[in-house]
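Q: My collaborator sent me two sequences in one message, no labels, and asked for predicted structures for both. Can we handle them in order? The first one she listed is below.
A: Yes, handling them in the order given. First sequence, followed by its structure tokens:
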Amino acid sequence: MKQNRLMAAVTLGLFAAAGVAQAADGWYVAPSVGYYNNDKDRLTEEGSVFGALGIGKYFNNNAALEFAIDRTNRTNDWPASGSFQNMAATLTYRQFFGEGAFKPYVLVGGGASLHERDGFDRGWDFVAQAGAGLAYDFSERVRGRAEAFYRYDFDDESVPGADNFGDWVLALGVQVALGEIAPPPPPAAPPPPPPPPAEPHCSELDSDGDGVNNCDDRCPNTPAGTVVGPDGCELQVAIDLRGVEFDFDKATLRPESRQTLDEATEVLRQYPDIRVEVAGHTDSVGSDQYNQGLSERRAKAVFDYLVGNGIDSGRLNARGYGESSPIADNATREGRQRNRRVELVVQ
């Protein structure tokens, strides 16, 4: 009885003095106390308490092997006096599960038990045990555990006419880490910053919005609305339609106008990206309303000629201006003739 009290005191003392980190090499001590539910064939009282002390080692966070010695003193039912003492030395494997503070586990092990019963031979017999338990991590150094296991004792000497006994065992204990404190694992390295977005290739950029990519643009930052050529520079396109004039009150092309329009067609073919306005004009003879319609018919005549010679209609915009934009004096015959015209305005 004094022994059991001593083991309990040791257990509580170690528990109270525990630190805060598991040993770096995995070694620990494990004092415990418990209760035997004795096999009735032992001819002892139904239950007895015991004390145990173990030393073990973790091989990883959840697997440990422990050597322990426990001792109990049973009270005999037969013979009526005397004592029956047992001391067991066992090697037990425990497998823990989970990563939280509470960890269920299973155990399996074996060893030898020394039987000392008054009036019988003193001897060692093999024991085997298996069971389960629940552990709780009070800190990184201290782990409490409660377990129940079945111990099978191959004792064939301590009770006349009876061999082999099975006892149920309940135990409460702690594991206290030994040695240096294992440093906490270093924090995970922060992920590398994402790579900067790839700079777009100059062929994908048009900084001045002139329709020519930056690779090919030899004249960057051209003003908005500037008509540019394939090199991004302002397009110097001269489309001279002088000579494309019309008879009085007519919207039909003169034969001599066709050569001028053919030259304009060739210029438009050389620069397929430019767009032009086909602008029709009249002299001042007649009403404004009539001259507006006449100028539109003249613009349409030139428009149709250019389209008929292969110029995409989407590049052309026919518009009449009536008598609003004279280039010569309408008071003279020659001035009025010059004002009856169509112009191509590059846009």
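Q: And the one she listed second?
A: Here it is, processed independently of the first:
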Amino acid sequence: MTRTGNSTRASRGRRADSGDGDGGGTSRPGSARADSARADSKRAGAKNADAESRADRKSRTRQALLDTTLDLVSERSFASISLREVARGAGIVPTAFYRHFASMEDLGVTLVEDSMRVLRRTLREGRRDLAARQALPTVRTSIAILFNQVREDESAFRFLIREQHGGVAEVRRAIDTERRLFAKELAIDLARLPDLSAWDAEDLEMVADLIVTIMLTSVAEYLDSDYRGRGVEREVIDRVERQLVLVFLGMGRWRSRHDR
């Protein structure tokens, strides 16, 4: 009896010891899941940071390609510029160019869209205040906004003025498209003015196109003043102001076809 009792107690002790050992050597399921989740989170964070870094680098390289092109076209036509020149100026190999643009024509169209988008936004903000006061835009305000933008982005405007009659068809079409969009936005703003409420859409688009044409022509003359002397700059601004005054005065006397 004593031997059997001792054997039983020893067996129970071994089972207890075995249980204690297992409990101390194996991680709890909840702890393992937490460790795994933390590891996954770190991997995801590193992956996102790497992806963000790649996106930033790609954006910087893309902008470097655009900036390099604007520098090159300040003295030359866009058609004369090679992909290799642009890539070298941006610090990349020529084959890497295609990660950002499908072709030089694609890059040129992007330059047009970016440049005109800035101009349209700037002039739109100026017109918004004028429309809120329900009055025709003042000539001096419109011209001041335009030429301030030209001074800030001179290279972009030189590109637009030169390439509207340049040798790359895709770029010419892009400039014409943006110019028409510019005129349509101006026509929409003019239609909101009480003095022009009776005008039909065709007449509004006609006068908006005339205003845009005068503005872009004045920009070309303004940029050309670098070669003709800075004194010409004031003459250009005075002349475009008078031209727009004539347009605005004529708008006050104009009658649409159905009103004649």
